[in-house]
Automatic annotation (TrEMBL), chain A:
Domain ABC transporter intervals: 4-238
Topological category with respect to the lipid bilayer: Peripheral membrane protein
Protein name, per record: Iron(III) transport system ATP-binding protein
UniProt record similarity statement: Belongs to the ABC transporter superfamily.
Species: Chelatococcus composti
Record-linked InterPro entries: AAA+_ATPase, ABC_SmlMolc_Importer, ABC_transporter-like_ATP-bd, ABC_transporter-like_CS, P-loop_NTPase
Organism placement in taxonomy: Bacteria, Pseudomonadati, Pseudomonadota, Alphaproteobacteria, Hyphomicrobiales
Record's keyword annotation contains DNA-binding: no
From TrEMBL, chain B:
Keyword Translocase annotated: no
Lineage: superkingdom: Bacteria
Transmembrane feature ranges: 71-92, 99-120, 145-167, 205-230, 250-271, 304-327, 362-384, 396-418, 424-445, 477-501, 533-556
Family named by the database record: Belongs to the binding-protein-dependent transport system permease family.
Signal peptide boundaries: none
Organism of provenance: Chelatococcus composti
Protein name, entry field: Iron(III) transport system permease protein
Residue ranges occupied by any ABC transmembrane type-1 domain in the UniProt entry: 64-272, 358-554
GO cellular component: plasma membrane
Localization (cell): Cell inner membrane; Cell membrane
Key words of the record: Cell inner membrane, Cell membrane, Membrane, Transmembrane, Transmembrane helix, Transport
GO process annotations (BP): transmembrane transport
Topology class, membrane: Multi-pass membrane protein
């Protein structure tokens, strides 16, 4: 168990900057999700932590040991990290037992202890009965568990999970999510979980690091990430946020301020340091509602309504800015359709900090 | 884990890599460099005397002309047969494709000298087969195969499978959308074949032609059996005659001749490169292979014609060979009364040299196969998974001894090993080890290619998983990678074994008493007029070859496509 420090790490493939001065600190025992669209550099980051490539610049420390910098490079076999691969990478020519025992064998752990630890690891994932099977005969979820047992049996200082649920069907994913969460609780291992699925990241992680085009955009708890995105990209990427322009007043010490969105007066959340002026505001679907009697809102043309069981997802373009589309959930019964004009009230919103996003 | 330990580990990987680099350099670059050096400085002194003497000798130029005539002729014939058959196999709905491919590719796996011997048994006045059928020409008639045309015919048959294999691989990679787009645009099937398929097949066709050219140029067995009796010498047979007539004193001279043949082969490869560089043949889409041509009413006639081809190029000569091997003496017709197994008994039990040759060929081939696989598994690991410019050059170096004619390597090996080795003080010349060295150098790439394609099929995370589990490179190679590439490695080992087992070109120049190979003994039986013994021994080698080829079909499912040439 150890903390992981990533300090301004850069990695270039040819002309392509896969990692651009990425820094983050992962606490001992923390479950960190690295979230981003494909090609954002999250898998590259994992491969640098594991040591499969040599970094161009920066430093990676596991505990107090520098494992990578521009000159030094500890090879993967000496880093004591565990990895669960997306493809599971179970060795097809070995039984489940031998797959799990491999790392112990390599480390020179002798037999009574080795068998005991393998059995423990298999018991932890509920696969004692499958020890003699070949991986080819297991289901997807079972393979996933073997991969997990194999990675944990050597008690690595750090466990890296590369989209471990991507190859499972939806039903199994929920079950495995639970399993990972319980697992992390019981072992208290530092885990770094690579995924492109934000629901998965939100459900599992203590904190989420959002990456895009090789850069780290924000690292925060799931709730902070949702409520207080650091910039427009994160705001749009997480929870389908809508970003609208606004005029805002200076925030009070509680972090509240007044604002005006397309002429509508609204009360918003902001950093206590927020100054008055132009700003961008992140709105969530749950911040919006159809105006009740006597309420004023933004007039909008309905573009589309989609019934989603008990409520409609409504998409509408603003009358004052037809290229701006907002979406919200409207409870049944709702009798308007495309083309109708409705008034939409804004109950809450987050003023994006003015830090520029280059 | 401290930084210095990390460096030591990476040092371990580097040691293995550099070991392989040195090994490949010793096997491929050293011999060729030594050969060129001998041409420039014969016997160690800088001189142009030998070059001048060789190049002004009219025999040299006759041999060059004969080499070019037979090589071009054989290549043209091979291209015609090979490409027609490839189109049928890859593009039409013919039946029994697997059996056909096996039979059609078989001549490639049979030693050229056995092919030559077999054909001689069907055409001459003493042919047991023709005598039995009552078709033999009168005694004293010259065997028509003792001629340039005979050599061309057999080279064409021997190497048609090479063109077939490269073209079939190309046709397999051809996306079916390209064909369907042509058909949708209103073109007829033959128009599509002419305007779309064949132009796109230029690269594999040119590659096949180049392969065929180099193989025909370097072939020793066929011109040795058909040309030497007619005093029709090509470069490899000229080198053989000079060396066996004069011994090592002719070394400088044959070194020049070998360089000459090497230059012609390189010219062929360069021309291939130039032809492909002029135009862009890259295929931009990928999808499953198409078999667009339904033969309908033409299916049965086509199949009959194709199997008739197999009958002519495979069944008839082998029947002739078997017939000769069963008669008590050359020229006797084969009947129920005359048939005998005495020839087999003689070569297997009585004749000391052929008994030794069995042991030598088995031992050499098996040892070469094992060594090559042991080298190929780590070598392919670096070539496939750790690509770099230096490794691409290493791959090229590993290809060289196989790409160049066998005589080139053989002469180079004599030059290296004639004098005692510097440190050890032993001479490998006139021992079995010089043949072994050449086998490993020449056939390395035959084992390397299947292993490399095995790596291409492997998910690299399997290795990375072992790496993060703490396993060093050697342990990963042995416990994870070797079991996973084992089927491909076995196929590679068998290809090496079969090729070495049937080999004559190298051992004809390098053998010494006690160190004969099967090819050498068949050759000397035939040269001594003992065609019946030669035939019996040849039949035995064909049986071994065939048995091993069939054995590979048992695990063919586990192999990447294209690793076993004889499987569709």
């Amino acid at each position: 168990m150890a903390r992981l420090t990533i300090d301004r790490v850069s990695k270039t493939f040819g002309n392509y900057r896969a990692l651009d001065a990425v820094s983050m600190e992962v606490r001992d025992g923390e479950f960190l999700a690295v979230l981003g669209p494909s090609g954002c550099g999250k898998t590259t980051l994992l491969r640098q932590i594991a040591g499969f490539d040599q970094i161009d610049d920066g430093e990676i420390r596991i505990g107090d040991t520098v494992v990578s910098d521009a000159r030094r490079h500890v090879p993967p076999e000496h880093r004591r990290v565990g990895i669960v691969f997306q493809s599971y990478a179970l060795w097809p020519h070995m039984s489940v037992f031998d797959n799990v025992a491999y790392g112990l064998k390599v480390a020179g752990v002798k037999d009574p202890e080795r068998t005991r630890r393998v059995k423990e690891a298999l018991a932890l994932v509920g696969l004692e009965a499958f020890a003699e099977r070949r991986p080819g005969l297991l289901s997807g979820g079972q393979r996933q568990r073997v991969a997990l047992a194999r990675c944990l049996v050597t008690e690595p200082s750090l466990v890296l999970l590369d989209e471990p649920l991507a190859n499972l069907d939806v039903h199994l994913r929920a079950a495995m999510e639970d399993e990972f969460a319980r697992f992390h609780e019981r072992t208290a291992t530092t885990m770094i979980y690579i995924t492109h699925d934000q629901a998965e990241a939100m459900a599992l992680a203590d904190r989420i690091a959002v990456m895009d085009r090789g850069r780290l955009l924000q690292i925060a708890t799931p709730s902070d990430l949702f409520r207080q995105p650091a910039n427009e990209t994160v705001a749009r990427f997480i929870g389908e946020g809508m970003v609208l322009p606004a005029e805002v007043g200076a925030a009070d010490s509680e972090g509240r301020c007044h604002g005006r969105i397309y002429g509508l007066e609204v009360s918003l959340r902001a950093s206590p340091l927020q100054k008055a002026g132009h700003a961008k505001v992140c709105l969530r679907a749950r911040d919006l509602a159809i105006a009740g009697p006597g309420q004023t809102g933004l007039s909008a043309h309905i573009v589309r309504t989609v019934y989603q069981g008990g409520f409609f997802r409504l998409e509408a373009s603003l009358v004052r800015a037809p290229d701006v589309t907002v979406h919200l959930a409207v409870p049944e019964p709702f009798h308007h359709g495309p083309g109708d004009v409705v008034d939409i009230v804004v109950n809450d919103g987050w003023v994006l900090p003015a830090t520029t996003e280059s | 884990m401290s930084g210095s330990a990390a460096k030591a580990m990476r040092g371990g990987d580097l040691t293995l890599l550099w070991g392989l680099v040195v090994l490949v350099a010793v096997l491929s670059i050293l011999p060729l460099a030594r050969l060129v050096l001998e041409g420039i400085a014969p016997g160690g002194a800088l001189s142009s005397g030998v070059i001048g003497a060789v190049l002004s000798d009219p025999t040299t130029w006759t041999a060059v002309r004969n080499s070019l005539v037979t090589t071009f002729g054989g290549t043209v014939l091979a291209v015609v047969i090979g490409s027609i058959v490839a189109c049928f196999v890859a593009l039409t709905d013919m039946r029994a494709r697997n059996a056909f491919v096996f039979c059609f590719v078989l001549p490639l796996m049979i030693a050229p000298q056995v092919t030559a011997l077999a054909w001689l048994q069907v055409t001459g006045p003493s042919s047991a087969l023709l005598k039995t059928l009552g078709l033999a020409p009168p005694l004293g008639t010259r065997n028509p195969l003792y001629s340039a045309e005979g050599i061309i015919l057999l080279l064409g048959i021997q190497y048609a499978p090479l063109v077939f294999l490269t073209l079939r691989a190309g046709l397999r990679a051809l996306p079916k959308e390209l064909i369907e787009a042509g058909l949708a645009a209103g073109a007829g099937k033959l128009t599509v074949l002419r305007t779309i398929i064949l132009p796109l097949m230029t690269p594999p066709l040119v590659a096949g032609i180049a392969l065929c050219f180099v193989s025909s140029l370097g072939n020793f067995g066929i011109p040795a059996f058909l040309g030497i009796p007619a005093n029709y010498l090509v470069l490899p047979t000229l080198i053989y005659q000079r060396l066996s007539g004069l011994g090592p004193s002719a070394l400088s001279e044959v070194a020049v001749l070998s360089t000459l043949i090497g230059v012609i082969a390189m010219a062929g490869i360069v021309v291939q490169d130039l032809m492909l560089r002029r135009r862009d043949f890259r295929i931009t889409t990928t999808s499953t292979a198409a078999r667009p041509f339904e033969l309908r009413g033409w299916r049965l006639p086509s199949e009959i014609l194709l199997w008739a081809l197999v009958l002519v190029i495979l069944v008839v000569p082998l029947a002739g060979l078997v017939a000769t091997s069963l008669v008590p003496s050359y020229g006797v017709p084969l009947t129920a009364a005359s048939a005998t197994l005495e020839n087999y008994a003689y070569v297997m039990f009585d004749h000391a040299a052929s008994r030794r040759a069995f042991a030598n060929s088995f031992g050499l081939s098996a040892a070469a196969a094992v060594v090559i696989v042991v080298v190929s598994v780590p070598l392919a690991y670096f070539l496939v998974w750790r690509r770099s410019r230096m490794l691409r050059l290493l791959n090229l170096a590993a290809e060289l001894p196989y790409a160049l004619p066998g005589v080139v390597l053989a002469i180079a090996a004599i030059l290296i090993f004639l004098k005692p080795l510097p440190v050890f003080g032993v001479s490998l010349y006139n021992t079995i080890w010089i043949i072994f060295f050449c086998y490993v150098a020449r056939f390395l790439v035959l084992g390397l290619r299947p292993v490399a394609s095995g790596y291409h099929q492997l998910d690299r995370t399997l290795e990375e998983a072992a790496q993060v589990a703490g396993a060093g490179l050697l342990r990963r190679l042995v416990t994870i990678i070797l079991p996973l590439v084992a089927p491909a490695a076995t196929a590679g080992a068998l290809l090496v074994f079969l090729t070495a087992f049937n080999e004559l070109t190298v051992s004809a120049l390098l053998w010494s008493s006690g160190n004969e190979t099967l090819g050498v003994v068949v050759f000397s039986f035939e040269q001594g007029g003992d065609s019946t013994y030669a035939a019996a021994l040849a039949v035995l080698t064909v049986i071994v070859t065939l048995a091993l080829m069939l054995a590979t079909l048992l695990f063919a499912r586990k192999l990447p496509q294209g690793v076993l040439p004889w499987r569709d």
